Amino acid sequence: MKEFYESIRLISYGLFVVCSKNREDKFNGLIVNTIFQITSEPQMIALSVSKDNLTHDYIMDSGVFTASVLEKDTPMKFIGRFGFKTGHKFDKFKDPLKYEIFITGAPIIMDHTLGYIEAAIKDAVDCGTHTLFIAKVIGGEVIKSGEPMTYAYYRTVKKGKVPKNAPTSFFIPGSKPD
């Protein structure tokens, strides 16, 4: 079983801030590492989000989300703002934060961002604790050149931990969860 866990950790991921809005145009966002391209024509992507996250509710409510690609040198404090505080108790957009609003009406984080994607939900697949959103890319732009942060870099160099709601957080019997 431990070998299985270690082999799963070899799957390569990026780190992104995913944001959405609700019907009252309130914003929320979270850190994810589970976005991937499905097709190039049409441009379709998939996103996995825990049902416990407020951003999940906002995506279900509005049918849209944005994904900002984080640069490699993104500070842990910034990652913590979106990755370790719940939107149910903390307004992640209250303190100064650079963001823009374009096609979807959902915020696009510009701080520490190499580029962004705007997407509209086409389908939602119930995966138990998470929902897999299938979405059409309706906008996006490369903001600056640089190296994107990977999940491996976050864990090994930045010594980042994984919140309990993350799709990559799973418990191996006989071990301690992160």
Please give a structural write-up.
The chain has 178 residues and is α+β, with helices and mostly antiparallel strands. Helices cover 17% and strands 37% of the residues. The protein contains 4 helices and 9 strands; from the N terminus they run H-E-E-E-E-H-E-H-E-E-E-E-H. The radius of gyration is 16 Å and the shape is globular. The C terminus is likely disordered.
Radius of gyration, taken over Cα atoms and rounded to an integer in Å = 16 Å
The helix fraction, in percent, is 10-25%
Can you list the strand order of the major beta sheet? 2-1-5-8-9-4-3
The structure class reads: alpha+beta
Shape: globular
Helix-strand pattern: HEEEEHEHEEEEH
Distance between the termini: 17 Å
Tally of structural domains: 1
Number of helices: 4
Instruction: Please state roughly what percent of the residues sit in beta strands, choosing from under 5%, 5-15%, 15-25%, 25-35%, 35-45% or over 45%.
Output: 35-45%
Q: Main β-sheet: number of strands, strand sense, barrel status?
A: 7 strands, antiparallel
CATH topology call = Pnp Oxidase, Chain A
CATH class descriptor: Mainly Beta
Q: What is the residue-mean pLDDT, rounded to a whole number?
A: 90
Per CATH, the superfamily is Electron Transport, Fmn-binding Protein, Chain A
Name given to the CATH architecture: Roll
Runs in which pLDDT lies below 50 for 5 or more consecutive residues are 168-178
